[in-house]
Amino acid sequence: MVKVKKRASKRLKIAQREKIKKKVKEHRRKTRRDERRSTQWKSKARKDPGIPNSFPYKEQLLNEIEQKRRLQEEEKLARKAEKLAQRDGEEAAGSDVEAAEDGENDDEVDEDDMLQDIPLTAPLFRGTLSELLASDEIRTVVLALDARDPQSFRSPWLEAQISSQKGKKLVFALSRADMVPLETVAAWSAHLTTSTGVPVFPISSPSDQLVENTGAEALVEQLDLKGIKKGDVAHRSR
Fold this sequence. Notes:
Layout: H1 14-37, H2 58-105, H3 111-117, H4 129-134, E1 140-146, H5 156-164, E2 169-175, H6 182-196, E3 200-202, H7 216-225, E4 233-237
Parallel strand pairs: 1-2, 1-4, 2-3
């Protein structure tokens, strides 16, 4: 008959147990000492463990964080654009003074040269974003969205600000529409128009093969029907 071996007891003598405790304590002390003496840099900040998958509202929380980050980025870009516009305004003022001084020294100006200096495009608005929204001269704001991914180029905050202003209208221009399939452009146009009520105009990129920019004529014609001139339109690209 096979004898069952008894299980070894984990009992120790007090001296042995204290000896083990002493060795463990000494080992931990040396480990802490080596960490203090080590020249390798270690961050004391605890790493963010993230949101556990078991959290029921993880997707909603991630969307809120992403929306907050996007708003902060848009505010940062707006402040940067405001500083650049202010600097450009100061440079433009300085150049106007120099031009006035040069004009006093010139006795005659060729009429043909004056006609060549007239810009053929709409004047560039050099004011800040707040000045653009408060200006009564700007009646339509054209927001350019890349047709390859329009949703990433949208600005909910800016759209809400423009919509809240009386006398101002918002228009979406899908730029680079020639780089995506026609079905995709049509789907995005229908989605944006249905969800926001804002008219959408697909516009192709200028190239040597295309004599005119497809879609730009429709946008200009739509603005002409409403009696809007070039100077009344502000364009903003993202």
